[in-house]
Specification:
Largest sheet of chain B: 2 strands, antiparallel
Number of strands of chain B: 6
Strand order of the largest sheet of chain B: 1-2
Shape of chain A: globular
Largest sheet of chain A: 2 strands, antiparallel
Oligomer: heterodimer
Strand order of the largest sheet of chain A: 1-2
Number of helices of chain A: 10
CATH class of the largest domain in chain B: Mainly Alpha
Number of domains of chain A: 2
CATH superfamily of the largest domain in chain A: Cytochrome c-like domain
CATH class of the largest domain in chain A: Mainly Alpha
CATH superfamily of the largest domain in chain B: Cytochrome c-like domain
Structural class of chain A: mainly alpha
Radius of gyration of chain A: 20 Å
Number of strands of chain A: 2
Strand content of chain B: 5-15%
Largest interface: A-B, 26 and 30 residues
Order of helices and strands of chain A: HHHHHHEEHHHH
CATH topology of the largest domain in chain A: Cytochrome Bc1 Complex, Chain D, domain 2
Distance between the termini of chain B: 26 Å
Radius of gyration of chain B: 19 Å
CATH topology of the largest domain in chain B: Cytochrome Bc1 Complex, Chain D, domain 2
Helix content of chain A: 40-55%
CATH architecture of the largest domain in chain B: Orthogonal Bundle
Order of helices and strands of chain B: HHHHHEEHHHEEHHHEE
């Protein structure tokens, strides 16, 4: 008789665990993790997860959980060097990381106009984004990051919906080697071939797509 | 009794595929590309900004649109997840990635193999038949073939006719002395290719749109496409893959990973003769470096993805 209650108890435990995790993701995001250094994400990335353009804090809403998890681990290891994120990433527990990244992946994404492969390209930023600069082995950004740079899978994050400031900072970090957490140097070798003018133009191009 | 019925059924199923007329019966290259010097400068096509704003410029733009987004702009002629520009990089401009400026001036061409003069339109029809796995190949005088021909003509502006330009086709990559090694190929695939094309080779999409093309399976090119040959795929991979990092793999690595890719099933060869893989191999694959009709780990390859 007592045995028949076991499955029910298991179900209750599962429900509690699921609910606890769902609450925890939101709590980590808005209140921070258990350790004080794991500060609330929302204070810099915004309550809607869209980031703060002027300060260069990126949008996190709608990014793949796998991608976000990898970034936190890379902040910890230093393959993505960042003095603000490093201590936060180090203080964030693995269960907190799982919960908050899963929550973020499900958040609404910004509205972006999708340009197809055959879209016309005018101006330095658009040409680089949609055509590339093959004489320096630079493929079109959209060849990997998807139409209008909306992101593809867990390895190629969205560029649209990010600010000009964030995109510029990242391209410079790739170029300077303070960020080197890409698979097989796929992004690093491209950034190192780009000029300052190109970085500025292409960052402005992708930032403009979600405005 | 059961067996003969299933054979009849199989033949009945196969017949409609054979009924499609095949304008150009293979995707072999006419002539190999000459050895390229280290300081090579390749033919340069006109820039997009140089296109005139008239009926000609408009048709070139339409051809380019079909070429880079075949899925959207010629969907009735595409039977898989590919776009022309998946194998002809940089919108058909890239040297050593079968650039259109290297192909267009080589036609019309006499080929001993089918003993006729093959036109560029027929060559394009071959691309649709095999690489795009089309069930409905565009007619030689269709808008799609016209637009693609005019786009190719424009990219070849100033190129000499009937001369093999450096960088045309895909480069020759010598086979490893010990032949292909599928286990090594798989290791290279996992380390270098899977990030874009997926662990299962099925590519990756954004919404319903392929960003990275499927390399095998029913949404990829068929067993008649030039890229199904190990040597052709090795040449493409060596010079152009991973995207933006061409020539980073060794000749051997390119060959092994090409063999690994092409050891998987893909759509049936539309030239299938009498429903027989063996007869089709003898007639169309006898000189190919490929796996069609071969047995790998006890499994007959070339049965076609459904």
């Amino acid at each position: 008789m007592t045995l028949t209650y076991w499955p029910l108890a298991g179900l209750c435990a599962l429900l509690l665990a699921t609910q606890a995790q769902a609450v925890e993701g939101q709590a980590v995001y808005t209140q921070g993790g258990a350790l004080p250094a794991a500060m609330a994400c929302s204070s810099c990335h915004g309550s809607d997860g869209m980031g703060m353009a002027a300060a260069g804090f990126p949008r996190l809403a709608g990014l793949s959980a796998e991608y976000l998890t990898k970034q936190i681990k890379d902040f910890r290891s230093g393959t993505r060097a960042n003095p603000v994120m490093q201590p936060i990433a180090a203080a964030l527990g693995d269960d907190e990381l799982t919960a908050v990244t899963e929550m973020l992946a499900g958040m609404p994404t910004p509205k972006v106009e999708r340009f197809g492969r055959s879209a016309e390209a005018e101006g330095l930023g658009a040409v680089l984004a949609l055509r590339g600069a093959w004489e320096r082995n630079i493929p079109a950004c959209v060849a990997c990051h998807g139409p209008s740079g909306v992101g593809v899978g867990s390895a190629f994050p969205p560029l649209a919906g990010q600010s000009n400031q964030y995109l510029t900072a990242q391209l410079n970090a790739w170029r300077q080697g303070t960020r080197q957490n890409d698979p097989n140097d796929l992004m690093g070798h491209i950034a190192r071939s780009m000029t300052d003018a190109e970085i500025d133009a292409v960052s402005r191009y992708f930032a403009s797509l979600s405005q | 009794m059961n067996i003969s019925i299933s054979v009849l059924l199989a033949m009945a199923l196969i017949t409609p595929v054979q009924a499609a007329k095949i304008a150009m019966d293979d995707q072999s290259q006419l002539l190999a590309s000459p050895q390229s010097a280290a300081d090579e400068t390749y033919f340069q096509s006109p820039r997009e900004s140089e296109l005139p704003n008239n009926a000609f410029g408009e048709l070139v733009r339409e051809g380019r649109a079909i070429f880079v987004d075949t899925q959207k702009n010629a969907p009735q002629h595409v039977g898989n997840g590919m776009n022309c520009t998946n194998c002809h990089l940089e919108q058909g401009r890239q040297a050593n990635s079968a650039p259109l400026w290297g192909a267009y001036p080589m036609y019309p061409a006499y080929r001993k193999k089918n003993d006729k003069v093959n036109t560029y339109a027929e060559r394009l029809q071959g691309c649709f038949q095999f690489s795009m796995n089309a069930k409905n190949v565009p007619a030689a005088d269709s808008h799609v073939i016209n637009a693609l021909s005019v786009y190719s003509y424009w990219l070849a502006t100033g190129a000499p006719t009937a001369q093999v330009l450096p960088g045309r086709g895909y480069p020759e990559v010598p086979a490893p002395s010990g032949g292909h090694d599928l286990a090594k190929g798989e290791q290279i695939y996992v380390a270098q290719c899977a990030v874009c094309h997926g662990a299962d080779g099925q590519g990756q999409k954004s919404a319903d749109e392929y960003v990275f093309p499927p390399l095998w399976g029913k949404y990829s090119f068929n067993w008649g496409a030039g890229m199904h040959r190990i040597n052709t795929a090795a040449g493409f991979i060596k010079s152009s893959m991973p995207l933006g990092k061409g020539n980073s793999l060794s000749d051997e690595e390119a060959w092994h990973v090409a063999a690994f890719m092409n050891s998987h099933e893909r759509p049936q060869d539309p030239r299938l003769v009498d429903g027989s893989i063996e007869t089709t191999r003898e007639k169309y694959h006898a000189n190919d470096v490929d796996f069609y009709g071969q047995v790998i780990d006890g499994v007959l390859i070339g049965q076609g993805s459904q």
